[in-house]
Amino acid sequence: MRQRTQLINAIRGHLTEYGWVAPRGTAHMTLLAEMLEDEEMASSLPAEALPMFRVMVDLLAELDKRVATLDREIARRAKEDEAARRLMTIPGIGPIAATAIVPLAPPVETFAKSRDFAAWLGLAPRQHSTGGKQRLGSISKMGERTIRRLLIIGGSAVVRQAFRNGAPAGSWLERMLARKPRMLVSVALANKMARMVWALLTRNEDYRAPAVVTA
Asked: Taking the model in full, what pTM does it have?
């Protein structure tokens, strides 16, 4: 994925040098390939630069095929693994995160409480005292980095969708988005997701969304 992102950034950067402003987002790369094949559009680029861009776009297409193949394989494995399947019932956890958590995390019996699991992942906020009062600070970022990163990415996706479409009325997410920055909410949600992971693996249950009570 990193190689693919670097290639996309390189294509966009070189096009900018020649006056083309390529839209952001990987979805627009297919359109860009079509534009490079269009003689009228391609004529605005120097003749010596056009072959380079076409090679880069072909490389990107090949990388896309490899990524798609890997995605299908990961999805297949996630469906076949009971623990991974349970984890995918949690909003924000997809096949990649689910199949990473199962082998990378210790047995859930290692942790007495869900908070202990979140702390092991480095998602529990630090506590410090100010004027005799206990306050919560930033997360510790200790523990298993891969799982922590995947949970934060998943939490960010849920928060982004809620910000665009609206969170369920009266929900924890709605209250948090009303008073906290989105990045902070994403990390807080990742903490909650870690606790859900512990609970589901401990009880062998699927995720059930909490009931929202409205006035």
From this structure: 0.74
